[in-house]
Amino acid sequence: MEKEVYIEGKKISYEQESPEQQKNIIFIHGSGATKLTWKHQLKATLPNYTKIALDLIGHGESQGNGYSSIDDYVDFIKSFIEALNLKNVTLCGHSMGGAIVLQFSLKYPHLLDKIIIAGSGAKLKVHQDILKATLEGANYAVDWAYCEHTKKELIEEAESEFNNTNKIVRYNDFLACNEFDIMQKVDQIDKPALVIVGSCDKLTPIKYAQYLKDNIKHSQMVVIQNAGHMSMWEKPDDFNKAICNFLQ
Asked: What is the pTM of this model?
């Protein structure tokens, strides 16, 4: 069900599936993306959980200009949680969304039950060529974000909302990722954590996920076979099974 809430005077679009339950899981997309990222997760059977996927400020159907720092996105997610008066929250973030979740768990741990990090890392350096191409409106994801075995039709559907987010917003997202670095702080995270990575992920390879697994105390790692950076799209059943097992 499509819904909206106002934060900082901006209309924020989100989708909520399943009636309100005792617990909530919020899905946070990556750089320049939209809530479409989580299409298959919103359909997953997660008993006792209300599933919510939002367009971050300035993305998709949400108003605003986005941010160029992960910290600003963290505070925005805090405002979103407070605006909806959500309790018992699990955050699930992909790529930049994963960085937001990691930083959130350091800054506002009292607001969280658990965290799920998909295709992300404790540091997210962005190649200068990608930054430059993003400003020119290019979609790097088509060449980089999917496993070579992934069907072309699936990639086209997953990328169909690419133009719904302004290229400047996407560029600023990549700047935020480029500045993100909690390599020395990640061992302070004290929440149960699931780290998910695609076996073919070129953008945030398995070593990134392994670092998180090795440094977050209460963590487990799942490698999704024959999936790239967009494992939630490429292998939704495997991805959903991993989060369902973790939440239960």
From this structure: 0.97
